[in-house]
Protein 1
Amino acid sequence: MPAVPGSPDGAAMTMRVLAAMSGGVDSAVAAARAVDAGHEVTGVHLALSSNPRSYRSGARGCCTLEDARDARRAADVIGIPFYVWDMAERFDADVVADFVAEYARGRTPNPCLRCNEKIKFAAVLDRAVALGFDAVCTGHYARLDNGRLRRSADAAKDQSYVLAVLNREQLARAMFPLGDSTKEEVRAEAARRGLAVASKPDSHDVCFIPDGDTRGFLAGRLGSAPGAIVDQDGTVLGSHDGSYAFTIGQRKGLRVGTPAGDGRPRYVLDIQPVSGTVTVGPAESLDVREITGQRPVWTGCPPPHGPHGCLVQVRAHGEALPAQAALDGDLLRIRLASATRGVAPGQAAVLYDGDAVLGSATITATA
Amino acid sequence: MGYSGSTGGSPRQAQDCLVYLDHAATTPMLPEAIAVMTAELAQLGNPSSLHNAGRRARRVVEESREQIAEAYGARPSEVVFTSGGTEADNLAVKGLYWARRAADPRRARVLVAAVEHHAVLDSAQWLAAHEGAEVDWLPVDATGELPAETLTARIGTAPDTVALVSVMWANNEVGTIQPIADLAAVAREYKIPFHTDAVQAAGQVAVNFAASGVDALTITGHKIGGPVGAGALLLARGIEPVPVMHGGGQERDVRSGTLDAPAIAAFATAAQIAVKRRDEEAARLAGLRDDLIRQVMAAVPDAILNGAPPGPGRLPANAHFSFPGCEGDALLMLLDAKGIACSTGSACTAGVAQPSHVLLAMGADEARARGSLRFTLGTTSTPADVAALGAVIGEVVDRARRAGKS
């Protein structure tokens, strides 16, 4: 059994731990491991949907009555008290509204990251601490090493990217018991422990868009906002019903009738939310060497005032690319060693030193 | 929802000495009721069968019917067994509405107190959504009481448009007792059937069906020391609701389903004992409850006691408070961690507490409604239980206040 991180200098220390239990296999095993490590654990399921009355089949979110029941049953099997906390209003204001507003600005947000920053390790953590808990435990695949966030042992499941927005205070109260394990190990352990969620499918969708139709969800929230699709010369190639349906680097679904002059595929290069103009062009025009980010967070090293050599990851499950990063006032400036493509404003730029997270910022501009 | 925290094997939860202050959710079964039920579980026979085994089971049911009738001032023929309070409330509200509407299509109004249990509340709302009913919510005062004049005014000049009136005998959250005889007399004057949900009242105050003048009255076993799964609707002669469940017509042709002889026998045993011990027990519980109120108010001087003042207008075993600046679910969780079981007393969706419709109807704002807790005593309650709560409620409220409203 891997040691549960979170206790200073790794010494065994009994803490009062609040385990966030989504109803999935990962958070259930994480809670069980926290119990094994000697902590006093209480399970909490976060009700995030304002209308959780539906039982759905197929793709799984984290907002259904079925998930609440699965979480309750897992807590029963583990033998810990269990409650449901209503976080629907906070979630709607801090995550869903932000998601919609970011798309309306022509950006591509990551709601899981925002949920970690604003809900799990803010609203929930604050309430837990006030109620006498020492830490919040989740089923994220990431490691904590003396307060520093590191990638998980299972590279394919690593979730350090969506946790890199957390600051030092938040990380000091976080516990990720699954960081040293692979998903297969966690599923096998869940089965050994008699947890019925052992074979429950992973969630992939945005949890508040259960049918996976992000474009339809945004259209419902933002309405129709027609605009032009143009090439880099400004020639109008077609039209669309809302620029929020596009992401930088997108190739499919452009619905531009005439082929490009050179016959090569075209990609979304730029989104102007006010005019609604979407610019498309060849792949090489997606090349980015410089990235600007706002709201930088530093947890793995002192804030770098001069250029600092590191690796940068610009989307979940993306590659880590060699770069130099430096603070420029409130902004983070990143220069990549070689060009990359498909960098979308709204995503996080996460800086790594090897597998250790140094810090992060929200991408606002690229060049 | 009541006591919903899971109990498992962790050290903190392994406490044997639970302080149970949630008797309004369900009561511990009386040993006498357990003995009767377990003995009957070993017996064979469907009470509707004509052979010897059936006759034996039928005899158990009919003796139980007589005991329940005697306990609550009804005739045996007026006792219609159901699976519990919810089914009895559904049968009364829907069944009487359908029957009255069929006899006279003008009778579409359903007059229901705004503080009813969801079994009545949601039945009325369902009739409005699907059956053309017009629900007229009867307002209550700040203590939760519905004065008879309010009912008179609502029936008003159009008594011919009313299908039925349903007002609970005593409120399950704040314990306020309604002037049932006065309310029933108003309905009777206009020949309108009157139903009352007496589930909470039946174990604590005198409930006499005939003397009250009501036409239909709901009781259930597990609130008076009997088992879950056995209840009854007392139905006056001549009051014939349309059935909700169809089948063998076992109970006066208004309720179908094989009668649960073991649970019914235990229900009847509990009813007999509860009524026999009622006056003495009510006085004992009122004393304990008053002490609980004193201790909570001493520890939390700004706590608000909701409902009618202690006395004849309030259930003797009920205390219900709002704690300003707190969330009820945080208080419940902190008390649960200390081995004290109580309730936020409100309805749940996926376990999420909604602000109580009862407190909102009494004029409380949403914050006060959310920050409330119900403590209810019963046969097993002791001064030590009250002292255990008194010892921790101050620090628990302090901590919940730090967690604030989330």
Protein 2
Amino acid sequence: MQAQQKENIISSDRSVILNLSELWSYRELFYFFTWREVKVKYKQTALGVIWVVLQPLIMVTIFSFFFGNALKNDNFLGLPYPVFVFSGLLLWNFFSSSVNSAGNSMLTNAPIIKKIYFPRIIIPVSALLVSGVDFIVAFVAFVATLIYYQVHVDLLALIIFWPLAMVFLLLGTLGISCGLAALNVKYRDFRYIIPFGLQIALFVSPVIYPASNISTPWVGYVLALNPMYAAINFFRVPLTGMSEMNFALMMISSVSAILFLVLGIYYFKKTEAFFADIA
Amino acid sequence: MKPILEIEHVSKRFRLQHQGVAYLSLRDRITNLFKSSDVMEDFWAVNDISFQVQPGESIGIIGRNGAGKSTLLKILSRITPPTSGRIVSRGRIASLLEVGTGFHQELNGRENIYMNGSILGMKKAEIDKHFDEIVDFSGTENFLDTPLKHYSSGMQLRLAFAVAAHLEPEILIIDEVLAVGDAEFQRKCLKKMEDVSKGGRTILFVSHNLVAVGNLCTRGVLLKSGRVMAEGDVKDVIRAYQMDFEMNQNTVWQRTTATRAPLWFESIKIQLNGDQPAMTLTIDLALRSEKKHNKGFLAFDIINSLGVTVMQAIPRIDPFIEYQSGLQNLEIGIDLPPLVPDTYSLTLWLGAHNNETFDMVSNAVMFEINETPTKGRTFPHTYDHGSIVPPSSVLKYTK
């Protein structure tokens, strides 16, 4: 019937390395999983996709009202407070919604995992892609805010630092999302730890106040372990210049993002074969 | 010609923890640091299974509950890895352990066809190509833009099977997906699967329904306690299964494994009384409970040796079993209709509601009927024409 087929072998050996060619052959499934979630997310909501813009705008307004006034004497790297907080929230919301949905994704998709094979990593990655769609819409709103406040943007820095910020945002988010998704299968405690941890993480990330406000050095080093630290600060460079950047802390945070990626994917790959047995 | 599928010494071990916890919590992990680890028991769900499948063959895998059929299918479908051994496949495998995997209630029919097809491994272009056929097969053309939640369960099933039927892998693995749906639809599915196997594709079919296996498959593999007990021509394998079934009759069942149900079957004992064609089956039950639960009730399925459920009994339709800590006993009587000689098994269900099952024990106990229900008939009476022989009479005869 067909020419000699390629042999596929199923055995107990498992690789912890991502099989990229296999992932490529499943590229349509990435698309369908993402498309399904995007479709379902705003079904039966009156405002629909407007929520994507409304959510960050409401948060920016609230933060500006409370923190903007309370921290009036602080220096927001020379930016109007709404622009400052929006630049942080834009990236933070992507991180937070990705981690939240990816963290629970293996459990919400357990019925599928138990019935059919596909590379499991498609599920948390699709959760990221869904948040990515929201990110793009919110990003347009952010650019509009920049124009409204007539913020000076260094275009050369933008070409270098925005892609760099996106890379670290993706690395950190992907690593943490995959790691938590896998941990949540085994230890259901993470269902409760994740939302709680995200709330705390918002306050230790340079979202609502600038990182340069921290005067105790060792606290600064600990906070820089957060991969979002590098992503958010890189993202602000074209708006603020590099004068207030602490290179040591940026290095720590960048390395931490890469470590999170490697560890997260390693743990995911190591445990994925048994998801169907314990999910 | 090389075999399309070679299964070589495949085994799968599950570790059973004696407290019966399905997953760990961090607290367990942390407390376990300070005490000796739990007693672990090894359980080999699949134990050193080897067989080969030639291209174009259709193989039926049969065996009782717990024989390892589902685990073997899960290994073949790559859902769970084997503990040892290996499988060499020379073709694209698609597995149908369930129909409608990935269906989402909020999406409409069209969207679900694409989602489900894609999860089953079809390319978008393939789905595009077969889209009209799928819609036609399912008979849901007027509902394509309606969200799935407004479909009847029968329509959902038809849509799901229509997608699955248009898969074109070299090797198709099918679990008992046909156990659902009305008889008419089951026939349609079996017909479609016959076409598939005649089209030269390789099929692995797992079912309790020996009639379906006998019709569809040419070769059979009988599993028992995780091992291959018989392999060969499907008729011989079915015969071996039935003999094994008859030799291992049990009229008493006792729970040996832990359960997390709020109310469960602790022991079951059956006894057959009376003579054909008016026999009664008496079931003595001991139920146990340790935590508060909703009121429950019972239902029974009676299954013949071919695995076909021939009747059901529901002694009381209202939930009547109240909560009581510890054991409580019940005695149930079922008036059996006239049955053909065969070995029948009993599946027992306990729950509060259709959607709230406490406990279910499949094929736990068996009884055998030797006498024919039609007195004076010398020709052997078998299940070939059905299991129940209702009283009938000639009302009129004009010459």
